[in-house]
Every structure is written in structure tokens, then in C-alpha cells.
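Revision sheet: C-alpha cells.
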Amino acid sequence: MEIAATTKISTLIKENPEAVEAIASISSHFEKLRNPLLRKLLAPRVTIADAARIGGCGVEAFYEKLAPLGFSVSSSSQGSALVQAAAAAPRPAALAQLPPENIITLDVREAIAAGNDPFQSIMSAVGKLDSTNALLLVNTFEPTPLFSILAKKGYAAHTEVQGPDLVHTYFWLSGGKQAATSEAKAPGKSFEQLLQRFGNSKVRSIDVRHLEMPQPMVTILSELEQLPANQALLVTHRRVPRFLLPQLEERGFVHALREVGPAEVYILIYKAT
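Predicted:
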């Protein structure tokens, strides 16, 4: 199979599953691919060029590791990886036909750098969209969790990697708006009652306050994949993770929240019964 900087990681793995170990050996950043859940979440969205940027290496490192598995570099693979990544997928017609003045721009890099959650700002901007406009979200990484959240509400997405730590993601209304689904919150009992229900021996605790986005969500989902059905995960977070909550519901988990301070939130997560 011929590959280029724009080849998706998921395509490599589908062609040859041994690509997982080959890529994981390049950098510790890629060891998450060994986790089936995280692989399913991240691989379809990331190209070789994207991965090289994340891992701080060149695309040549990927070519070298993948060559023994039967992959060859496309003869048409010219220029920088980032330029190729940006040009790989042409803009969908619905987006390309919009005049510039109909693009609403929201740059969340400063908010994230300051440790603030941009979710409410993003959803407020999305609420202004109709069939005549689109939202341009400027970020340092591809906002993968947003794709599934907004797809359920009738929005399409398109991502363009502009350079190191600069990603443009467009959202626009592609169908009728759907009613918002309720979050899978634990019914009835208080946070303390639920915690007592599981007891110390059946509660696994993690603290993700020191992690930069999107690592808290990735870490939590990884822990949940290994969580026994009769146990709960207690997460200490800096904020209510709005991007994470729909992901929990999709995977059959319920949660209870306790906000104890401006930068300290407890989240108890367990499998719905």
C-alpha cells in the first residue's frame, strides 16, 4: 500500500494491524494506540502528518517504521507534511460556497491556555448557526469530542491543519436541529450516598487536574474501559467536563457531580444497571 503524509492512522491499521506496534515504537505519545478504545476514538481523525506534529518527529520516522510492513511512500508525496494535511481534503461544497462574512470565528486558544473550559462559548456560537452560515473554531488540536456531540444535533464538520499548534475546524448545519438529549445523571441518591454505596474497596480514584486538554478526557475514558462492572471511578477534575458527559452516556455510564471549589470538581462514574 502506498502512503503519504495525509494517510489516516486508521487506514494504516486496517491495512495491517501490526502498524499499531510500529507506530507506538516511534514515541511514547503513540502508546495510546495500544488501547482499543482510544484507538477507535483518535485513529480515524489523525493523519501521519498530524501524528508527527503531536509526537514532535518527522513523517520520515513513520515511513521508516512502516516500510518493513509493506507500506511504501507515494511518489506524489511532495512538500511539507502540514501543507499536504491542509490540502488533503477539499472543503465540502456547503462550506466552500459560503461568503467569508458568513463565517463566525471563535478562537479558543487563549481560554484553554488560561485553564478555562471553552465549551459554553462554543455552544453559544453554535446556537447562532443556521443554513446561511458556519462556525470557524480556532484551536491548537482537533476537537474530536465535539464531532459526535454536534453530529447528533445535525451539524457537519471539516478540519484543516494550518501548522504546528494551529487547527481550524468548521461546523455548519447539515440537517434539521434535533432536541438536546438529557445527560445520564445518577437518579435519586446524593453524591455522598452513591459514594457510600460502593465503599472504598470498589472505588478507583484518579486526579486529572494537572493534565492539559484533551488529556483529561482521554485518561478518564481509558480508565473506564478497564473498570469492572461493580466498581466506580472517582475523578478529581478542575471543572465539569462538558465534552466528556455525552461520551459517558454513549458508553452506558452514569455520573454524579460534586463541585467543591472554583477549580475542584468530583465526578463519580459507574456503569448503568
